[in-house]
Amino acid sequence: MVLIVSPLSRLLDLIAERSPSHVISLLSPEEMITTPPGFSPDRHLRLGVHDISQPQQGLIAPDASTVEQILAFGRDWTGDAPMVVHCWAGVSRSTATAFVLACARNPQADERDIALKMRKAAPHAYPNRRIIALADEMLRRRGRMIEAVEAMGANLLVLEGSPFELDARH
Question: Is 45 part of a structural domain of the chain?
Fold first, then answer.
């Protein structure tokens, strides 16, 4: 049950190399991609949101609907093949989404343990705090997801992250 987090630039290579069953794209609406060739649109969740943690005029912030769609899409994933989650750089929206999916799959797991495994796999990860806060509330984690992401500490500043894996089983 593997989540692969990636920047957009590596998406097609990862699909060819890893044969995922599901893909989540989190891109600004103006940069949203079509479903990759040969991939079923019903297994490709496309979320047009900007990488912001607070609402800003002219931009689309992740909202409750965004997180509800992520959680519903994750419930339909059997885990038999990987799921690829990507955003533009593979640093913020995608890492938040992978963390949310791992927490949702493991309601009894220590959120901090999941977050620290992400940090070890991805020094560049900086999960979008808005997505985390919304998911924390929906999953009734009482602030533990937010605290876990903060416990990751500072991230390595990069223009684009490297693909990494996060086991969705904890």
Answer: yes
pLDDT tens by residue, 84-131: 999 999 999 999 999 999 999 999 999 999 999 999 999 999 999 999
The Cα 170–Cα 107 span in angstroms is 10
Does residue 35 contact residue 44 with C-beta atoms inside 8 Å?
yes
| Dihedral-angle region of residue 19 (phi above 0 means left; psi in -120 to 50 means alpha; beta otherwise) | left
For residue range 46-74, list pLDDT tens digits in order. Answer: 999 999 999 999 999 999 999 999 999 99
**CATH classification at residue 53:** 3.90.190.10
What's the chain's length in residues?
Answer: 170
Q: Is residue 23 part of a domain?
A: yes
- pTM of the shown model: 0.96
Amino acid (one-letter) located at 130: R
Q: Is 167 within the bounds of a domain? A: no
